Amino acid sequence: MKIPVSAIRLPTRPGREYESRFDREQSILKMLAIPIASIILASMVTTLPIFSAGPLLPPFGLLMFLSWRLMRPGLLPIWSGVPFGLMDDLFSGQPFGSAGLLWSLAMLVVEIIDSRAIWRDYLQDWLIAALLIIAVLVGGWWFAGLAHAAPKPEILFPQMLLSILLYPLVVRICARLDSWRLAT
Amino acid sequence: MAPPPHRRPGFSRKAQYGLFATYVVAIAGTIVAALLLTISVVDPTGFSALRAFGSEVTAPVARVINDARQSTQAITHNVSAYIDAASKNVALEKELKAHRSALIEARALHLENARLRGLLKIADEDAQQVAVGRLISSTASSTRRVATLSIGRNFGVERAQPVRGPAGLIGRVIETGPTTARVLLVTDSENLVPVMRASDGLPAFSSGLGNGLVLIKPLNLGESPFKVGDIIITSGNGGLYGANIPFARVIRKTSDGALGMPFADPANTPYAVVMKPYLGEARAAQQALAPDGETKEVAE
Question: Is A12 helix (H, G, I), strand (E, B) or coil?
Fold first, then answer.
């Protein structure tokens, strides 16, 4: 059965019913602020009262950062791993500079992959993200071990698994934020 | 997704140089981050001011959520208390009777102990508390086990003060901000605690494993003398952690020690007491006479 065209109501935002629907401009503030704010807020998740016996909470800042990078290549500049990583270091408890270095290296790795591969699809994105998450977690463990006594590396496995499985969810959140970012 | 168009800037010199500059900035930033990391590896307390700033900024939100979390925990606890209330009541009354006589004995022992100490003229510093706060967050995504405390320098909290909860030892303060402090939990690999077995005073050391358990190693070599269920308390050796603070229960015996589960669960502790370092005055007097690292060996 065909739906009559007159029955389809275009969604209008409350308060904007009388504004023109043509030639609207996207808000530049929203376009810039949403990716930055979402990554920093995701890094701040560790400051919520979440107590775990071992390292279990996925590094949400990293997941958000990787999903923005893989979903929207060219949005985040190549050097953006350093400032976002250093911001993450303030909240994660790792030695200061460890995420700054690791996220920046992850960014360069994705850049190299992008320069080699012509196309990436979602599964390849997930694979790239999974490998980078494992590398960053192991690197973070190693750097923490340089500065302080470190536990055995096996305790990272649950966190790795959880982070890799949660990556699709973070990508979906990221996609929702992106459509909000670009909405007029 | 196809590579973005910025990768091929065309014939524009300006665009080509711009793209090249971003690569230069990225490499330079990576090197700067590596340098910062080197500094923080060499001097782990170096960037504590920055981290304190981070926890100060986020502490208000953490405080509010923590309050909500604790009140919901109280609600579920109150509701579950009604289940099986009658049989629980009978069991508790039985237990109370048994404990009452033990308590009287303990009081008598306490008095006798005080009298004997008076005879021996042992000057014992009482463990004095500095301030009472709550744990508001932890480094749940890092391999380090550090928690944030809701009180800081404004309340007299300083570095190297032990922190305990009602159930047992939590850890020690490693960094302080104006209204927050960071506590190295006993389950962190770096935290060594001198402990002893409660039943016979067998001296041992505890170090964290990073997964919520502690490894307890006796000072004497040989086969592990521990049994599952042994109660471990702090011994007060070394003068940082006070003596006789409940510490852990042995849950598994290993070849040369035991695995213990700390009594204080940071997720579930209603408050955290910051205490003065045990025997801090004696340590200060010793440092005034012979500071660490500056004492020279006397040639004979």
Answer: coil
pLDDT interval class at B216 (50, 70, 90):
very high
CB-based contact, B143 to chain A, within 8 Å:
yes
Helical ranges in B143-289 per DSSP H:
280-289
Question: Could you tell me if B46 lies within 8 Å of chain A, comparing CB atoms?
Answer: yes
Strand pairing category for B214-218 and B231-234: unpaired
DSSP B124: -
Separation CA A147–CA A78 (nearest Å): 28
Question: Which ranges constitute the DSSP H helices of chain A?
Answer: 28-43, 60-71, 81-92, 98-116, 122-147, 157-182
Q: Which helix (H) or strand (E) holds B232?
A: strand B231-234
Listing DSSP states for B145-168 in one string gives -EEEES--GGGT--TT-EEE-SSS
Position A8 confidence tier, pLDDT thresholds 50, 70, 90 = low
Q: Are A119 and B2 a contacting pair at CB < 8 A?
A: yes
Tokens encoding B86: 């009658």
What ipTM did this prediction achieve?
Answer: 0.80
70-129 in chain B: CB under 8 A from chain A? none
Residue B100, amino acid: R
